[in-house]
What does this fold into?
Amino acid sequence: MNEYQTHENQTLQDVASHVYGRADVAFELGLLNNLSVTDSLPAGTILKLVEAPENIFVKTALEGRNIVPAVDFNSEEFEDIGLGIGSMIIETNFIVR
It folds into this structure.
C-alpha cells in the first residue's frame, strides 16, 4: 500500500488534491487513517493512501507549477495578533456606521 508524508500546513483535502487531483478523496483518506477531515496534520505525518481515480488535469496543473497544496494554519501563529471577530468590541475597535 502506498503512503504519503505530509507537508507543513496540509489538510486531508490538500493531500487528496495533491495525490489524486480531487479533494473529495479526503473523506476516504480520513476513514482509512482514522482521522477527521478537520484534523490538523503535523508535517511529516505518514498517511496510508487509498485506491481512487485521479483527475489528471488538476494533478498536471499542480505539478507544472510546483504547487503543494497547504491551506491549514497554525492558530498559535495568530494568537499574538489579537484580531478577528472574537476580539472585536462594538464601538471600541469595531465601529458600526
